[in-house]
Structure formats: C-alpha cells, structure tokens
Design goal:
By secondary structure, the protein is α+β, with helices and mostly antiparallel strands. Among the domains are: 12-60; 138-311, 3-layer Sandwich (Rieske Iron-sulfur Protein), CATH 2.102.10. It has helices at 18-35, 40-79, 81-85, 96-126, 209-212, and strands at residues 138-142, 151-157, 167-180, 183-192, 203-204, 217-221, 224-231, 236-237, 244-245, 251-253, 262-268, 271-284, 291-295. It has a five-stranded antiparallel β-sheet with strand order 4-3-2-7-6, with no helix packed on it. Strands 1, 11, 12 and 13 form a four-stranded antiparallel β-sheet that branches. It binds FE2/S2 (inorganic) cluster.
C-alpha cells in the first residue's frame, strides 16, 4: 500500500503509560527538591529516567516497525517513481518515517538540553533556602539589664562569623514573672522587627533612650556586640507601606497579613538567650498573660491561618 494512502490513525503513536510515569517522575523530583532533596529527588529522577527510556524505546520501536513495513513500497517507488507519484515528483510517503524520527529526536534532545540547563539553575536558586539553615542562639546579656515593664530596641548578630549581614533587631520587654504549671517563670515579649507584609524593618512608634534621658546599654557578649536602647512605644510602624502594629505585634492597619513574628527564648544562668523566630497569627491579651497563636516560622506576606494558608503549603525555614 502507498504510505500516502495509510489511514491517519496509523501515523499516530500508540498510547502508552510511559509518558505518565515520566511526568510522575518529574513531579517527584520537583517536590523532592523542596521537601527532601537527599532522598525523594533522586528517587524521582530514577523514575523519570526509567520511564523516559521506556517511552523512547516504545516510540522508536514503533518507528522501526513502520519503516520496515514501508520499505518494500519505498523500493518500488524508487524503481518507478513516476508510477507512484504520477508526475515525476518525489513520492510523498518516502520521507515520513525519517521526518518523524528527526522530529521526535529534535524534541527529545531539546527537552534534555532544556532540563540540563534549567534544573541546576533552579536548584542553585531554590535549594539554599532549604539547606543549612541553623537557628543560632544569641546571648542578649543578663536579665537584670532589662528593667521590668520597660521596652528595649535590641540589636544583635545572629551569627558573628557572618558579620553585619546577620544583624537583627528585636523589641524586648521584661514582663516580670508568670506561673507555668505551678512554677514561677520569667516572661519576656520579644518581637521581631521584620514586617509581616514584605519584611521591611518596623520601627517603634515612640521616644527612645536619648529623648527619655535613659542610658543605652552596649556590651559584648559571647554572641558579639549587643545594644539595648530603651523606648516607650505606642505601637510599631512600618515605613514602607504604612503597616501598623500594637505593642503585642498585632496588625492594626495597613497591608500586613498577620502579627509580627516573635523570638523564642530561654534563661540560662540568669542570661536572656534568644532562640529562633516563630510566626504569629495574632495575640490575645498582653504581657505575661498573652495567648500567642503561634506557627512555625514562615516568610513575610504569608498567611498562617484562615483559608489563605492553603496558598502556602511548603515553606523554607527562616531565621
Ligand atoms: S513591608 Fe511593611 S507595610 Fe509593606
């Protein structure tokens, strides 16, 4: 039969499950890069390679089969081209298998080159957010430096080895003591100054040490240089887009989507030690009696509660 007269369906590759397996493998690689690059991503790559090879084999074996079936007719056409085409032109069916093969090879090669270029770039861009993020402990000095009920703008480095790039600011208030399971525990409110909208540095809305005539404490602890500047804030405000927060860090106006993040802390040998940050949806109550609706640390602009949280299913860790 002249290949030109073959029904259209015979030109189409038979459906197989290999492309689906290949797609699943790629999906597992992408999820693995985010969730677990050590184990899940390589498993996904293996799945993609196995199914990709099976897919390529199935596609090329079909082409080989067609080429074999068409070969006698092609030979006929070469012997008497005029008889096939009727006008002396090259037989229309002769080039079909080779063209198809070249088309598939070009697409496949393009895909492989695209993957080789894209995957490393995407990996270098995304992976550092998920790897090697350690929570440093920061010694803010003796608890006695923090007068009860007084706010301080505290600046410190989370990792002195990294230098100024690790400098952070927190608003710290000594709430006195609270009772936890029958035991008196020190209570501190320690609020991060990273705006919950886009991360700009939030400022305290109120007079600071110099105006108050109060002394700023500067000292050098094992965590590097520490500065504690007294302040009397009516709230906290963001200079970027006007986000406003009350003194518990609750959003009161502007675009931020949640309350300000807070620092976890512990008291060791009478010293205030800052741990990592956590995110806060909102705070009920104040000071030592505050009920903090806390969540794991997420990036600025991300909802931690309400239906909007489903828009942020995977988050890299933050300091
Ligand atoms: S970054 Fe603070 S309000 Fe936009």
């Amino acid at each position: 039969m002249n290949p030109e007269e073959m029904p259209e369906q015979e030109h189409l590759p038979k459906p197989t499950v290999w492309p689906i397996g290949f797609a699943i493998g790629i999906a597992v690689v992408l999820v693995g890069l985010i969730v677990d690059p050590t184990y899940i991503a390589p498993v996904g790559a293996l799945i993609a390679i196995v199914f990709g090879v099976l897919w390529a084999r199935a596609a090329t074996s079909e082409l080989r089969g067609r080429t074999t079936a068409i070969e006698p007719e092609r030979r006929e056409a070469q012997v008497a081209p005029a008889a096939v085409s009727g006008d002396g032109a090259q037989p229309a069916g002769e080039r079909f298998p080779r063209n198809k093969f070249l088309e598939l090879s070009t697409l496949g090669l393009g895909g492989v080159i695209g993957g080789l270029v894209t995957v490393p770039i995407a990996g270098f861009a995304v992976l550092p957010s998920f790897l090697g993020q350690k929570h440093h402990r920061t010694d803010l000095g003796p608890v006695s430096d923090f007068a009860e009920g007084q706010w301080y703008i505290s600046t410190f480095m989370t990792d002195p080895a990294e230098g100024e790039v690790s400098r952070r600011t927190a608003f710290v208030r000594n709430n006195g003591t609270t009772t936890v399971e029958g035991k008196a525990e020190p209570s501190f409110t320690i609020i991060s100054n990273h705006c919950a909208h886009l991360g700009c540095p939030v400022q305290a809305n109120g007079p600071t040490g110099a105006i108050l005539g109060m002394k700023t404490i500067s000292e050098h602890t094992v965590s590097g240089p520490i500065k504690l500047e007294p302040v009397v804030p009516a709230g906290f405000g963001c200079p970027c887009h006007g986000g406003q927060y009350d003194t518990e860090g609750n959003r009161t106006a502007g675009p931020p989507v949640r309350a300000l993040d807070r620092y976890a802390f512990e008291i060791i040998n009478g010293r205030l030690i800052l741990l990592g940050t956590f995110s806060v949806a909102h705070v009920d109550g104040t000071g030592a009696q505050a009920q903090i609706h806390k969540y794991k640390s997420v990036g600025p602009g991300e909802h931690v509660d309400g239906w909007e949280q489903i828009l942020y299913p995977i988050n890299p860790p933050h300091n």
